[in-house]
Amino acid sequence: MTAPIITTRADVARSLADALLGEGTDRWRHSAGVAARASDLALRLGLDHDLLVSAAWLHDIGYAAPLVDTGFHPIDGARHLTSEGWPARVAGLVAYHSGARFVAEIRGLSAELAEFPDEQTVVSDALTYADQTVGPRGQQVDPEARYTEMLHRHGPCSFNARVDPVRRPHLRAIAARIDHLLAQ
Ligand SMILES: [Fe+2]
């Protein structure tokens, strides 16, 4: 008798990321790297593995051309997930990852972002930590180096650069909290 194949939510999330981002593309490789990092963090910190790894696979799907609406990928991704019946926690984790609220505010999208729950937990910290420690092609990177590379890539007049004075301390605080937990 063959064992039943159990499909987890994270498996479904990966399939969706494969379809929307294109398996093997840089964006997909980044998402795969974030998912692997998230898996490691979930196991080491005793977090909800399926939830965190699902959000990691899905956090950047809002970049996929068919999903672009507001042009702000955390919101566009979260809206798609909600329309497809994904749990509010998954959509909320995607919507708020990596300090998205600061960028949403400067882009005039705070009301749109507020459609989603902002859980501000160790799980949301871990998603941001995973995203900030994986580079654009899936390689593991130092978060400060990744952040500096991101600002350079987006340019000095970008929304990301304009919110840097508030977003960078937010990301550093998250990194410090996760590093502290990992060290225990
Ligand atoms: Fe990302």
UniProtKB/TrEMBL annotation:
Domain HD stretches: 27-112
Entry-linked Gene3D superfamilies: Hypothetical protein af1432
SUPFAM superfamilies referenced in this protein's UniProt entry, alphabetically: HD-domain/PDEase-like
Xref: Pfam families: HD (PF01966)
InterPro entries named among the record's database cross-references: HD/PDEase_dom (IPR003607), HD_domain (IPR006674), HDIG_dom (IPR006675)
Name of this protein: HD domain-containing protein
Organism field: Actinoplanes missouriensis (strain ATCC 14538 / DSM 43046 / CBS 188.64 / JCM 3121 / NBRC 102363 / NCIMB 12654 / NRRL B-3342 / UNCC 431)
